[in-house]
Design brief:
- This protein is α+β, with helices and mostly antiparallel strands.
- It folds into two domains: 74 residues, Arc Repressor Mutant, subunit A; 53 residues, Ferric-uptake regulator, C-terminal dimerisarion domain (Dna Ligase, domain 1, 2-Layer Sandwich), CATH 3.30.1490.190.
- The protein is 34% helix and 13% strand.
- The strands form two sheets. A three-stranded mixed beta sheet has the order 4-3-5, with no helix packed on it. Strands 1-2 form a two-stranded antiparallel sheet.
- The longest helix has 13 residues.
C-alpha cells in the first residue's frame, strides 16, 4: 500500500484559504526549518530564499499564517515573539533564563491533563500554554562570572 502523499506548502496555504505567494511559501518553510525563530531571523531566512522582503510583509504574513493555524506564535514573558511550525498538538516550552533558548516539551503522556483546569469557570478549554523556566544544559554547567 502506498503511503499518503504529503501536501505541498502551496497546497497547505490554499487549503486554509490563503493566497499562495513565493514569500508566504518561503516564510512557512523558514519557520518549519527553524527553531522558535524571531521575526528578524525569519526575515533573513525568507530573504535567503526569495530575495528582498520588507519586515512589514514578514509581520503581515506571520499574522495570516498564525491566524490560519499553520504557524504558532509564542511569547515568553520578557522575550520577543517567536514562531514555530509545530501546531495542533498542545505541546509546551522550556525557556532558558540565561541564554533564552526555547525548546519543545510534550504535554503529559496520555490524555492532556493540562486541559483540565481546577475550575474552568464555564469555559470550553481547548488549549493550555505552559512555559517551564530554568537553565539549559549549557548554561547550567557554565562557570559563573
Amino acid at each position: 500500500m502506498t503511503a499518503p502523499r504529503t501536501p505541498t506548502t502551496a497546497e497547505e496555504l490554499r487549503g486554509v484559504g490563503l493566497r499562495v505567494t513565493a514569500a508566504r511559501v518561503a516564510l512557512l518553510e523558514t519557520v518549519r526549518d527553524g527553531d522558535h525563530l524571531g521575526v528578524e531571523a525569519i526575515a533573513t531566512g525568507v530573504r535567503g530564499r526569495v530575495g528582498h522582503i520588507s519586515l512589514q510583509a514578514v509581520y503581515e504574513a506571520l499574522h495570516a499564517l498564525t491566524g490560519a493555524g499553520l504557524v504558532r506564535r509564542i511569547e515568553p514573558p520578557g522575550s520577543p515573539a517567536r514562531f514555530e511550525g509545530r501546531v495542533g498538538d498542545n505541546h509546551h516550552h522550556l525557556v532558558c533564563r540565561s541564554c533564552g533558548a526555547v525548546v519543545d516539551v510534550d504535554c503529559a503522556v496520555g490524555h492532556a491533563p493540562c486541559l483540565t483546569a481546577s475550575d474552568d469557570r464555564g469555559f470550553a478549554i481547548d488549549e493550555a500554554e505552559v512555559i517551564y523556566w530554568g537553565l539549559c544544559p549549557d548554561c547550567s554547567t557554565a562557570p559563573s562570572t
